[in-house]
Design brief:
Layout lengths: L1 E6 L13 E5 L8 E3 L2 E4 L13 H10 L4 E6 L4 H14 L3 E6 L4 E2 L10 E2 L11 H14 L6 E5 L23 E6 L21 H10 L2 E6 L6 H16 L3 E5 L1
Parallel strand pairs: 2-5, 2-12, 5-6, 6-9, 10-11, 11-12
Antiparallel strand pairs: 1-9, 1-10, 3-4, 7-8
Catalytic activity: Endohydrolysis of (1->4)-beta-D-glucosidic linkages in cellulose, lichenin and cereal beta-D-glucans
Protein name: cellulase
EC number: 3.2.1.4
């Protein structure tokens, strides 16, 4: 189970269980390398050819037919000028919510092989690594660009020191507006990667984090989960969604 942190634009605190956000995790902008005969060669990729942030026709269908109200949009940090149009399409044109996801896997350099290569941000032993101050400056700029968009939210990855779980630290963060939710990824296959066809992880795996959220007075949203295309996984996913709807600490999901 992977933890990260988001701040939602509108986060209520109901006395009963309710899913406020149900939607889709869009993929594309975080894999935007230039391609030659199908082989990724580097950055920048060609917008509209090597990558896109959204398919606007698909967005239209999901909003109209599936009643989706949240889209998680991902992008390399260097693509934010083009990213802005996708965010505006979802929030201003379609009047739905966006979770902003600058998806560099906490690394940079040789993007095609991420998350397994490149310099780790904040690595003091790597002279090529960006510093934690650089990281702070980036997210400050991100917040400034979208601060007037009330249908967008920020996203920041967090971790421990490699040996300690992030749950030891996340509850220590102080938000004066009490407007924060923890983002969690939970795939249902054997190794939690989302690459397997079978769904072997029972919904009871969420009990621990649910109790942790209650203990610290926090809310959460699952933004990546899924399984294979088969009846077993369809039933398992239904059980997960039912679970989220029953527990008041969960405010939504994207898949």
């Amino acid at each position: 189970m992977k933890f990260s942190l988001i701040t939602l634009a509108t986060l209520a605190a109901p006395a009963f269980a309710k899913v406020y956000y149900a939607g889709v995790a869009e993929s594309g902008g975080e894999f935007g390398v230039w391609n030659d005969n199908g082989v990724g060669r580097g950055l920048p990729g060609r917008f509209g050819s090597d990558y896109a942030f959204v398919n606007k026709t698909a967005i239209d269908v999901m909003v109209k037919d599936d009643k989706i109200n949240l889209f998680r949009l991902r992008s390399f940090w260097s693509y934010f000028d083009l990213f802005y149009d996708a965010v505006q399409y979802v929030t201003a044109r379609k009047r739905r919510y966006v979770l902003l996801d600058p998806h560099n896997y906490m690394r940079y350099n040789y993007h095609f092989a991420q998350p397994y290569s490149g310099s780790i941000i904040g690595d003091v032993n790597d002279p090529n690594a960006a510093t934690t101050q650089d990281f702070k400056m980036f997210f400050t700029e991100l917040a400034k660009r979208f601060r007037h968009n009330t249908r967008s939210s920020g996203h920041a990855f967090t971790t421990g020191n490699g040996n300690e779980p992030s749950s030891d630290y996340l509850h220590l963060m102080k938000d004066p507006l009490n407007n924060t939710a923890i983002e969690i990824h939970e795939y249902l296959d054997d190794n939690y990667s989302g690459s397997g066809a079978n769904c072997t992880q029972p919904v009871s795996r969420l009990d621990g984090v649910t109790n942790w959220l209650k203990q610290h007075g926090l809310k959460a949203i699952i933004t990546e989960f899924g399984g294979g295309v088969n009846p077993e996984c369809a039933q398992a996913l239904k059980e997960y969604i039912d679970y989220l709807e029953e527990k008041e600490v969960w405010i939504g999901w994207t898949a």
